[in-house]
């Protein structure tokens, strides 16, 4: 039987169930059946939405580039981000992917007027009174390795904190870091694929 779990991966947790070099893994937080694995991944130093399932078809639908879908990230960057940098993010920047230059697809990028309602991070980001930070919302329809961090760095505003908030209409609302909720196939697919959920 297929099972579906939506989790909020905490900071500094590996997106896998077996440990490497003694690092904390999903196994330390999420008691799911042994045949359930994460769909995609979030970096060790990133936080947020991750799906655990034993549905191989879902894995293909979300990871195959043919099935493009929105991924929304809430990103705290170092510095007061400029309109020029936002324009770069919106139109595409050149980053390195597997040792080659890659031009990112156009993204949706906007600034939060007030910081988003996110939980405190442990440990917190390094605070420097002389350097402001900015929270931005970035929506991508692709997922290269460490893409968000590479994109903001390329525009001159390094990422300090990165939270994946949403995939299509599935989001983190109601979850705190280390929490999960189980969903049915119908519930999950209706949020991820809308009318395409057959």
Distance between the termini: 17 Å
Secondary structure: helix percent: 10-25%
CATH architecture field of the largest domain: 2-Layer Sandwich
Give the full name of the CATH homologous superfamily of the largest domain: Pseudouridine synthase I, catalytic domain, N-terminal subdomain
What's the structural domain tally?
A: 2
What does this molecule look like?
By secondary structure, this protein is α+β, with helices and mostly antiparallel strands. It folds into 2 domains: 1-69 and 168-198, Pseudouridine synthase I, catalytic domain, N-terminal subdomain (Alpha-Beta Plaits), CATH 3.30.70; 70-166, Alpha-Beta Plaits (2-Layer Sandwich). Helix content is 17%, strand content 29%. It has 4 helices and 11 strands, in the order E-E-E-H-E-H-E-E-E-E-H-E-E-E-H. The chain has helices spanning 56-63, 83-91, 147-154, 185-193, and strands spanning 4-9, 37-38, 47-53, 71-78, 94-97, 100-103, 108-111, 133-140, 159-167, 170-171, 180-183. The strands form 2 sheets. Strands 1, 2, 3, 4, 7, 8, 9, 10 and 11 form a 9-stranded mixed sheet that branches. A two-stranded antiparallel ribbon has the order 5-6. A hairpin with a 2-residue loop joins strand 9 and strand 10. It is globular, with a radius of gyration of 17 Å. The two termini are 17 Å apart. The mean pLDDT is 93.
Question: How would you describe this structure in keywords?
Answer:
198 residues, alpha+beta, Alpha-Beta Plaits, nine-stranded mixed β-sheet, two-stranded antiparallel sheet
Please summarize what this structure is:
The chain has 198 residues and is α+β, with helices and mostly antiparallel strands. The protein has helices at 56-63, 83-91, 147-154, 185-193, and strands at 4-9, 37-38, 47-53, 71-78, 94-97, 100-103, 108-111, 133-140, 159-167, 170-171, 180-183. The longest helix has 9 residues, at 83-91.
